[in-house]
Amino acid sequence: MRYSSYFIPTKKEVPADAEIISHQLMIRAGMIRKLTSGIYTYLPVGLKSIRKVENIVREEMNRAGAIEVLMPAVQPAELWQESGRWEYYGRELLRFKDRHDRDACMGPTHEEVITDLVRKEIHSYKQMPINLYQIQTKFRDEIRPRFGIMRGREFIMKDAYSFDVDEAGANRSYEAMYEAYERIFQRCGLKFRAVEADSGTIGGSYSHEFMVLADSGEDQIVNCAACSYAANLERAEVKEDANVTPPDSSEFMDMERVETPDQRTIDEVTRFLNVTSQNLVKTLIYVIDEEPVAVLVRGDHELNEAKLKNALNAQSVEMASERTVEETTGAPMGFAGPVGLKIKVLADDAVKTMANFVVGGNEKDLHLKNVNLERDFKVAVFGDLRTIAQGDPCPRCGGAMSFGRGIEVGHVFKLGVKYSEAMKALFLNEQGKELPMIMGCYGIGIGRTVAAAIEQNHDENGIVFPIPVAPFEVSILPLQMHNDDVVKAAVKIYEGLMKNGIDALLDDRDERAGVKFNDADLLGIPVRITVGSRGLKNGEVEVKLRPEAESFTVPLDKAATAIQDTVKKLYDSLK
Ligand code: ATP
Ligand code: MG
Predict the structure, then answer these.
(1) Whether residues 64 and 118 fall in one domain
(2) What pTM does this model have?
(3) What is the pLDDT of residues 19-71, one digit of tens each?
(4) What is the number of domains present in the chain?
């Protein structure tokens, strides 16, 4: 591409509404422009990066045996009513009516549409397994669109859906996608980790998220250095330290009532009573499937609502209202405790090892000291109900866990029969028996992957693209546009590269050298060739790799081949 006849509107100023570096750089490098909240136009260089990621994804999907289709963006409400999601998907689903007053929505994901297609076309085990995918625009009316195309409302996703005859087959399909994802993100040059995750609204039983490691990531992840355990922080299992044993009742002291006027929060109570939060038990009142229950966690621990929901196999988990708290405990908020409570009491496993602790007294301005399990109250169910914290051991091997942040670029789910049962996607097995298909679904955010690559690879001068995601592989900068020899040499290299399939940008603008250098750096083009009158006198041009400070020279007549080698090496390093 010749820069002078192309469209790369770069900017010097940092856009005021761009919080994270990838968003700032994508605007500054002329990759994207905002139309309205969460909705962007991809400008030529942005689109080129997007297409490069799409091609890697497409190659790996095809290699893994998935077959490409393209489904509609607009979906009829009936399908969503059949799956049950019309009711509970919430406001992220953009709904509207057509001219005939029929309800419809913009597809945020395509389980319904693909299940409808497959149930109509596939009826026998002989036609399975099958995995269909598309690369398509999704719409989600995100509550807080931000970070540019990282969390947009309209965005490009690759979504694949597998249909198998049995559990073993479904596991194989899942594995194949998991491995394809590893190859995709490896080929994109990203540092990433697959972590165990929760299944969220899409439902299903099992999933992994592919996280690009970056401090600005919205997701918190934990991983063990000793074994391979890695999980989303929300989902990470907690196994209490086996060396800490339950207390002996001989250590129990007499329970005491202590007045704590207006002391409600953990901070207030610990300071007032001069105890640590590890010595206090929080009593949280919840309404679970309409029944009030009390949940106990150690003062310094965080209750995890997803775990609570799973532990009770509950449909709904909500914090109790102030009124319910008063009705069930007899005291205003801030003074709930398990002693004498009439409702069911659940407790996190860590509470088992505590002795002589502080709890609320179920009376205004009252707490109890030296409270002990069994002697003073009973717990109906113990379990892993809290979120993992710094210092907790690895649930698999007991090793030390490290905490970090990540950007979720891909997600693989085992869906099971959730959609095939609800929507009757049935097939006849070898014995002629009718069964629901076993499904999996697998998404990758294409735009988010480009943004994540920038988030992980940039410096003070701009983007430092891994070559597979870069809009151009090579930039050629003729420094003096009025010197014929310089221009001729640059064009010769450019044409030589293009002929050999190297994606090059010839900066033929009549601009100062500084402007060209700055733009090449901002765009993050991995290999830069500078053609200047001084070098040409020695028959040389200069080559510089974007992440490196030093450049090297190559003879003009060997430039095209030398650069081809350099480009190949950059790709090979990511295999
Ligand atoms: P998140 O937790 O970030 O909202 P999600 O769990 O809702 O993601 P999935 O439904 O699993 O996402 O979608 C598959 C992939 O689509 C995600 O892994 C992510 O890469 C991408 N994606 C999801 N929401 C957005 C968005 N609003 N903008 C850009 N990409 C997105
Ligand atoms: Mg989401």
Answers:
(1) yes
(2) 0.89
(3) 999 999 999 999 999 999 999 999 999 999 999 999 999 999 999 999 999 99
(4) 3
Distance 544 CA to ligand 2 centre (A): 40
Does the CB atom of residue 158 touch ligand 1 within 6 A? no
Residue 354 is part of a domain; what is its CATH number? 3.90.960.10
The answer to the question of residue 142 being in a domain is yes
CATH number of 542's domain:
3.40.50.800
* pLDDT above 70 as % of the chain: 99
State whether the beta carbon of 30 lies less than 6 angstroms from ligand 1: no
Q: Which residues are bridge partners to 293 per DSSP?
A: 286, 344
| Domain match, 25 and 115 both | yes
Predicted local confidence at residue 203, as pLDDT: 44
Please check whether residues 299 and 327 belong to one and the same domain. Answer: yes
pLDDT tens sequence across 102-141: 999 999 999 999 999 999 999 999 999 999 999 999 999 9
152 lines ligand 1 (CB under 6 A): yes
The CA distance from 498 to 186, in Å, is 26
Q: How far is the CA of 99 from the centre of ligand 1 (A)?
A: 31
Residue nearest to atom 16 of ligand 1 (CA): 445
- 108 ligand 1 Cβ < 6 A: no
| Of residues 480, 538, 475, the one with CA closest to residue 502 | 475
**Same domain assignment for residues 41 and 172:** yes
What is the CA(117)–ligand 2 centre distance, in A? 25
Does residue 90 line the site of ligand 1, with CB under 6 A? no
**What range defines the domain where residue 549 resides?**
472-572
Q: Atom 2 in ligand 1: which residue has the minimum CA distance?
A: 408
Q: Do 260 and 119 reside in the same domain of the chain?
A: no
Whether residue 402 lies inside any domain: the answer is no
Residue pLDDT, tens place only, 407-419: 999 999 999 999 9
Q: Whose CA is nearest to atom 31 of ligand 1?
A: 445
Residue 118: exposure state from Cβ atoms within 10 A (0-12, 13-18, ≥19): buried
Residue that finishes a domain, picked among 393, 426, 455: 455
Segment 288-328, tens digit of pLDDT? 999 999 999 999 999 999 899 988 888 889 999 999 999 99
- Examine the domain organization and report whether 346 and 437 are in the same domain: no
Max CA pair span of the chain: 96
| Residue 519 included in any domain | yes
In a domain, 505, yes or no: yes
* Residue where a domain terminates, one of 429, 455, 481: 455
Given a cut of 60, is residue 537 above it in pLDDT?
yes
Same domain membership, residue 124 and residue 20: yes
The residue whose CA is least distant from atom 30 of ligand 1 is 445
Q: Where residue 447 sits, what CATH number does that domain have?
A: 3.30.930.10
Query: If you write DSSP's letter for every residue of 419-461 in order, what string do you get?
Result: HHHHTT-EEE-TTS-EEEPEEEEEEEEHHHHHHHHHHHSEETT
Ligand 1 in reach of 410 Cβ (< 6 A): yes
> Which of 54, 156, 411 to probe ligand 1 with, by most ligand atoms within 8 A of CB?
411
Do 359 and 499 belong to one domain? no
* SS3 label, residue 297: strand
pLDDT digits (tens, 9 = 90+) for 236-269: 999 988 788 888 999 999 999 999 999 999 999 9
Query: SS3 string of 92-116?
Result: HCCEEECCCCCEEEECCCCHHHHHH
For residue 149, the tally of other CB atoms under 10 A from its CB is 28
- Kindly report, residue by residue over 418-456, the tens digit of the pLDDT: 999 999 999 999 999 999 999 999 999 999 999 999 999
